[in-house]
Every structure is written in structure tokens, then in C-alpha cells.
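User: Okay, second chain of the day. Same drill as before: sequence in, C-alpha cells out.
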Amino acid sequence: MALAEQMSGRPARQRGRADPAPGPATAGDSRLFWAVPIVLLALLVPLNVFAGPLVLTTQRVVLMVAIFPVAMRFISGDYGRIRFIDWAIFLYLLWATLTIGINNPAAVVQYSGSTSLELLGGYLIGRCCIRNIHQFRRMARLFAGLVLLSLPFALYEGITGQSLLLRVYNGLPVVFSAREITTAPRLGLYRAQFTMPTPIHYGLFAALALCLVTVAHQNLWGLAKRLVVGGAIFLCSFLSLSSGAFLAVVFQIGFLAWARMTRGITIRWWILFAIAAVFYTVIEVFSDRSGIMVFLSYATFSAATAFNRVLIFNYGMDNVWANPLFGIGLNDWVRPFWMIHPSVDNFWLLNTMRHGLPSFLLMSVAWLGQIWIVAKRPLTEGSDLYWARRAWLFTIVSMTFTLCTVDVWGPPFVLCFFLFGAGAWLMDAAEPEDAAAAEPVQEGPADRPGRDRTEPPSRRRQTLSRNRRDAAPEESPDDGPEQSSPEAGTTDPPVRRRAPYARPPGDRRPRRG
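Assistant: Same drill. C-alpha cells below.
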């Protein structure tokens, strides 16, 4: 994108343009990017094997191999300073280990070890292996490619109710995979599970790729290509027939529509936040239910599911207030006897029930803190970084709401924290012109220590360029014949011809003109 287009806020309209090579302002270390495709590909091969009392999954084996070189370089400071967000996540894991040790001492090693490996491994690989927009786009394209690869399998499963890959994996010797879930048809289709633990996990897996690839490639792909890719991703998420997963798609489309309708309004996101706050206040005042319960009840396909989620939230919060500091650990939660299933379809609520309110506060500091810092980063509207920032924000915010209606574990758990860490580089992202302005100015012949040090860098560069131009030696007459005016008596200065263009060695292109 040209500098004039960046400053004017108009995105480039180049169709099919390849992703440019990283420049000096955006170059990052790509030696560890190999871990990104391996982690994403492991989502499609969920094989498990028993190793004594432990269960080794494909994701855990990959993370054990990749986390050590990534963590060592992270601690050494190769990926910037350790921020308060990183400390909040580390403290969350320590507190979670402490609560399991208090409530379930026999399970502290197995549970805390596997959870820490999946959460910290996914986060650090996203945090350290994606350091610029080029790696971010490569990750988004790979992720979207995996979602599109699942489309024919999901279509077959929606029509027949049979998961081909899970049947193949479970037929292999020694290893086993996720259990194939059979449910009653919805809207005339069976719920697609693909290779995920549940259909809702597959719907979330597909939904998270929507904005991540279509918005991040705003300046690279044409509208038709983005609509085709986005429509296919939309279809994949729909085939899960899960209201919680489809909620992520609804939020992303809503954010895109609001951004389109309010173009040119600087405070448009504050306006959207104010509208949401007003609606929530009205519901709290005039409804017999809380705003959260109204949200949970309407974010479903069926009334029975809505009623069940409201009950889970009410009794789950009773467990939180009864054990606010250390939670209940892995013990069964208190609920009516007729609520047979112990599952809690709310990731944030379940973690608070298990590890207490301090764990919720630490995770909120990390999650909301990074969203706030990235959202406040000054970027030129229409630039590549601007669209990458918007893609990540829309994805993470929609994921935040979706996790209020679903719990994640295994591959989806790793994916969520991987995508969260993949936006950490945006906290320090700077436009190319800003990076150039921050570079120190080299002293020239006329730029000696006697100059005014308080002069702005841009003014100093202009002065330096002018002084060098004035101090340049006069061109010799051998540079080319002079052309004088054909009229006699004219005193116009002679015009010198430009010196021939010096081509670099090996350049065999024909001369222009």
C-alpha cells in the first residue's frame, strides 16, 4: 500500500496481490514459526494414548516438543519484555495449581500439569511465533485452509450422521480418539462434529476463522474472494447446528455491519458500548431476570437448552459464593438432584467454580488488558496493521461471549489461548512511517553537534537533506552537453541532461526509452 493511501485511510485495491516480504519495520524472527502449522494440524489428528496414569494426546506431545525452545527465548527477552499480561497468566496457573492441591491433592500433578501445558503452551506459541503481520496472515490462511478442508466431511456428517475421520481414528490399534456423538437431527440435518470432542467445539473452531482471514486480508484479496471464503466458513460453523458456536458468527457479522454503517465516526465503538450498557440497564430494571440470564436464554436454538443454561448459571454462582477463595476444585458441584448431568456450559463460570474468584480476576486482567491495549494502539485507518488489529479484536471479543455458553477442553482449549497469544505483537505494532521516524538521524557534514537538539526529528532530517544538497559539488561539464535557448540574448540558465542510468551488474532488462 502506498504511503498516500495509508495517510488518506483508503485501502489499496490491488486484486490478487501477493503478501509482501517483511520489511525492516516489520521483520520478525521466523525461526520458530514451524511450531504454528504443527499445532494447528494437530487439531485434525486428535489421537490419544495411555502412558501409565497419564493420557498423551497429539496436542500435548506437540506442545511438549515446542514449548521448551519457545519458553527459553521468551524468558531471555527475545520477544520483548514480559508484560503484566504474561504475569497474570503465570499467576493464574499457579493459583489454579494451589486450589487443586487443596481440594484434590491426588490429582494435582496430573490435572495441573496437563492444563498448564495446554494453556501455557498454546499461549506462548501464539505469543512468540507470530511477531508481525506477515506471520499473522500466514497463520490465518493456514487456519482458514483447515476449516475449508473440513467442509466436505461436515457435509457428509450432516447428511448421514457419521463422522468419517473419528471412525478411522478409533479403528486404529493402541490409540483412541474422541467419542462420536449421535444426536437427534436439527433443521433436517445431523450435527457435524468433524474431529472435535463435541459438535459445538467444531462450530467454534470454524467460526473463529471468519474474521481472522477475511478482514486481515482486506488489502490483499478482492471482495468476491473474501465473500466466497467467508461463506464457506459460515457454512462449516452452521453445520454444527450449535447455538453457542453460531453466536460467535453472529457477533462477528454484527461487528462488521456496525463498522460499515458507522464509517467516519471516531467514537463509534464507544457508542456501541453505550447502547449495550443502556439495553442491559433497561433489562435489569424492567425484567424479572438479570441481563446475563436473558442473554443466556436467547443465545440458544431451543427453550429447553435456554432453561438449562439459566439453571446452571444460578446454581453455579451459588457454588462460587459458597467457596469464593479456593473454589471446589474437581469435586462435584452442588445442584438439585434432578439435574443429572454435571457439565457446566460456561468456560468462565466453570473456572471460577473450580479455582475461586482470584483466578477469575487474574484471567480477566490478562484477557481484557490485552484487548484494551491492542484496541487503543494508534494505527492508520485502512493500513494493513489496521485490518489485522480489527480481525484479531473481532475474533477474540466474539470468542469471549461464546465462552459464556460453552466449556472448552482439549484441542479447542489450546486453540483459544493460541489465538489469544497470536495478537500480543499488536500491542507494539507501529506503522512503517512511525518506525522510520523513531530511527536515529545520522550526522552529516553540516549536521554537527552545534545544532539545536530540541528540533523535531522530521525537521532535522529536512535540514540535513537541504544542507547536503547545498554542499554538493557542482556537476562537471562532462556530465552532458548544455542546451541553451534558441533565442538570442536570453539569460535563462542552461539545462543539463540527466546522467545515464547506471544499471546494477547482472541486470539484463531492456533499457526504457
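The two ends are 28 Å apart (CA to CA).

User: Thanks, on to the next one.
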